[in-house]
Amino acid sequence: MVEVAGSVSSNSKSTRQGSNEHVQHWNHDFCNHDLTPQPATLELSRPWAIAATAIGALVPNLVIWLLGLAAGGSFEMTDAGKTSSVAPGGVVILTVVPILLGMTLAALISLKWVAVIRPAEVIGALLPLATIALTIQADFDTASTISLSVMHVVVAAAVVAGLEAMRRPLVRAAHV
């Protein structure tokens, strides 16, 4: 019985030494890793990326519309002698519908060709930025023109961010 206890004790001691070696090895490995902070990345499924992008662009655009109103903007334009307002309904429709259409198209194509998301990001940024020219050409007052132009920039940024959030898990899954 003494021998068994002795052997248990020696086994216990050798197990502890093995544990200590493991801890030292783990500490050594941990200390050799690059501990540089990594940027946070957002990864979303296709449907969540589309929804988050639409909402993520609509909310700031409605805030910009309210700020434009507070700055004296009317958000009205005259076309062929007829005055029409583009807000708030126009802000909602012209923010959400192009995002839903464009991102859904990119998501569907990416089912077969994930690489389409990069060109979609470029297109999704350029189209809203290019259409700022149409806003400037319309006869909006200055506050409305500035507000509507900033809304185009918000849509461009949201689409690029949303498509990138859609792309990341797809690329990661392809490399696994």
Structural class: mainly alpha
Which word captures the global form? elongated
Query: Roughly how many Å apart are the termini?
Result: 54 Å
Strand percentage, roughly? under 5%
Number of separate helices: 6
| Largest pleated sheet | 2 strands, antiparallel
Query: How is the largest sheet built, in terms of strand order?
Result: 1-2
Helix content: over 70%
Radius of gyration: 28 Å
SSE arrangement, N to C: HHEEHHHH
Low-pLDDT stretches:
1-16, 21-30
Number of strands: 2
Mean pLDDT: 85
Overview of this protein structure:
The chain is mostly helical and 176 residues long. The protein has 6 helices and 2 strands. It has helices at 2-32, 46-70, 89-110, 117-130, 132-137, 142-175; strands at residues 76-79, 82-85. Helix 2 (46-70) runs antiparallel to helix 3 (89-110) and helix 4 runs antiparallel to helix 6 (142-175). The longest helix has 34 residues, at 142-175.
Based on the model shown, name its key terms.
two-stranded antiparallel ribbon; elongated
In short:
With 176 residues, the chain is mainly α.
